[in-house]
Amino acid sequence: QHSLPLVPLQMHQAGSVGGRSAAPLGVPILQPGRGRQLSMATTPVHLVWGIKVEDTSNLLGDVPDTLWSFDPNFRPEAPTVQRFLMSVCKEIMTRDVLVLQQVCWVQHFRSWLYDQGTVFPARSEDFSSLIDNFAREVWIPDGGEAGNFLWFSPDGRLRAAYYSFQIDLARYTAGTAETLSAKTKWDQYVENLNLNAPVGADEAWHNSKSWIRVEASQAILSSTLDSMILSSACGFFGALVSTHFDVWLSVFALFAVIGVTLLLAWFICVFLGWTIGAIEVLGLIIFVGYSITYSLHIAHKYREGIRETEQSDLSPRERREFAVRFALTAMTSAIVGSAVTTLGASFFLFFCTISIFVKVASILFAVTFFAAIYSVMALPVALLLIGPIGLCSPKRVSITVVRQMSDLGSRLSRGSLRSSLSLGSGAQSQGSLGSLGSSDGNDEVATRSGSAVGDPSEVIVTVH
Predict the structure, then answer these.
(1) Which of 3, 217, 277, 456 has the most other CB atoms within 10 Å of its CB?
(2) How does DSSP assign 300-358, residue by residue?
(3) Could you report the per-residue pLDDT of 340-365, keeping only the tens digit for each?
(4) Dihedral pair phi/psi, residue 38, rounded to 5°
(5) In a 3-state reduction of DSSP, which class is residue 17?
(6) Residue 424 half-sphere exposure, CB side, CA atoms within 13 Å?
């Protein structure tokens, strides 16, 4: 039993007693020894006393020392607390918390006290020396050294401790709902445990890596809709930039993304039959940006085709046909080539032994295939039927307004010039005609006429 494999504790060197660190960096996770055959079919859960954990931490940078602290209210030297800790080990196997195996240091502490010829619970004045010797000398089956379950302050006082349990929950294959159900049972159990605990042991809490994983999955699932809306909005603005702020073409590209996302959701939930989890949701969100690229290429080329027929006498339907044919001729080979290379690269992930890589390969394979098919089939059909034939963009509108204002100004200028020639004096008219005649063949000649048209200000007249 002394040769059982152990996972070393991660400890924070804040002081030590007998070579053991006095303060933990985090609650240690032990790998069971004799019960090693249960390690994959069960989940480790730890019940902790004496440590207070802060709710928040820095996202980046070093982990601060203030993430945790010792609970000053934990009094393991009190006989009532020792009896309570023993009762927890006895009665937890009868509770609906799925416990299959337990490692309770206090049971071995009691046996060691009996071997030493003393009583349990230990007297308060003798507790510190006894627990220190126990931590040094005793080896716990399936747990290693007894000191692995205990934390001491530099003065030798026991400040925190924990129990380790293996529960009937598959560590890596249990679903989100099953894991959440187990966590809820433990939440209720620990809450009732603290309500009935004596003073000095009434602030216990439990932890498990499976709880962290399922809570992260829940957070991802709860924010799925918000994330997809944000991703779609970013894709829409990216399409605006790529299409030179053509609103309608950007809307077409956005609907293409929505169509690919819905197809991908159908592929994951219906075709593959996967349960929606963190990987599936991340696939839906992350690949939104990837799926828009092919549609953007078609929309961009469609816009160029519409611009080429802007001055032609083609009907709207003929202009759409020309633009769609132009876009498909220019981009189909590039889109198909890009899709084939991506599908070929993701194909090798299907042979991975780690399931997450197989899921990523499946999602990448599906979104590439759907995006390519949608861009060369569904989107061209939509553009052929109801595609915009006007260039709807702020830049285009501003250019149109400027041209219309220029034409209006030209017409007004010609009218002002004719008025000045007919109403002005002979000398002024001759001067104006002389200035017109001296244009040397230029297309645009600027002349000035003022009081002849009754306007005291100077008017710039442009003649085309």
Answers:
(1) 217
(2) HHHHHHHHHTTTS---HHHHHHHHHHHHHHHHHHHHHHHHHHHHHHHHGGGG-SSHHHH
(3) 998 888 888 899 988 888 888 888 88
(4) -90, -5
(5) strand
(6) 21
How long is the chain? 464
User: Quick one: pLDDT band at residue 184, thresholds 50, 70, 90?
Assistant: very high
Could you tell me the end-to-end alpha-carbon distance of the chain, in angstroms, rounded to an integer?
104
Q: Is the dihedral of CA 424, 427, 430, 434 positive or negative?
A: negative
**Of 459, 210, 258, 453, the residue nearest 371 (C-alpha):** 258
Q: Are 133 and 154 in contact (CB under 8 A)?
A: no
Q: Which two tokens stand for residue 291?
A: 């799926």
Which position has the token pair 């240690």? 28
Confidence grade of residue 321 (pLDDT, cut at 50, 70, 90): very high
Q: Does this model's pTM top 0.70? A: no
CA-CA distance, 62 to 44, in Å (whole number)? Answer: 27
pLDDT tens string 91-137: 999 999 999 999 999 999 999 999 999 999 999 999 999 999 999 99
Q: For tokens 């790998």, what's the residue?
A: 31
Q: What is the dihedral of CA 213, 215, 218, 223, to 10 degrees?
A: -110
Q: Which residues contact 339 (CB under 8 A, 6 or more apart)?
A: 294, 368, 369, 371, 372
CB 256 within 8 A of CB 375: yes
The CA distance from 49 to 440, in Å, is 100
Give the bridge partners for 41, in sequence order.
Answer: none
CB 459 within 8 A of CB 453: yes
Residue located via tokens 């990448």: 364
Q: What is the pLDDT of residues 441-456, one digit of tens each?
A: 444 333 333 433 344 3
Q: CA-to-CA distance for 196 and 156, rounded, in angstroms?
A: 29
The single-letter code of the amino acid at 458 is: E
Angle (CA) 172-173-175 rounded to 5° is 115
Three-state secondary structure of 136-169: HHCEECCCEEHHHHEEECCCCCEEEEEEEEEECC
Longest dimension (CA), the chain: 137
Q: How far from the centroid of its chain's Cα atoms is residue 53's Cα?
A: 26
Residue with tokens 């605990």: 197
List, as one string, the DSSP characters of 406-428. Answer: HHHHHHHHHHHHHHHHHHS-HHH
For 160, the 3-state DSSP assignment is strand
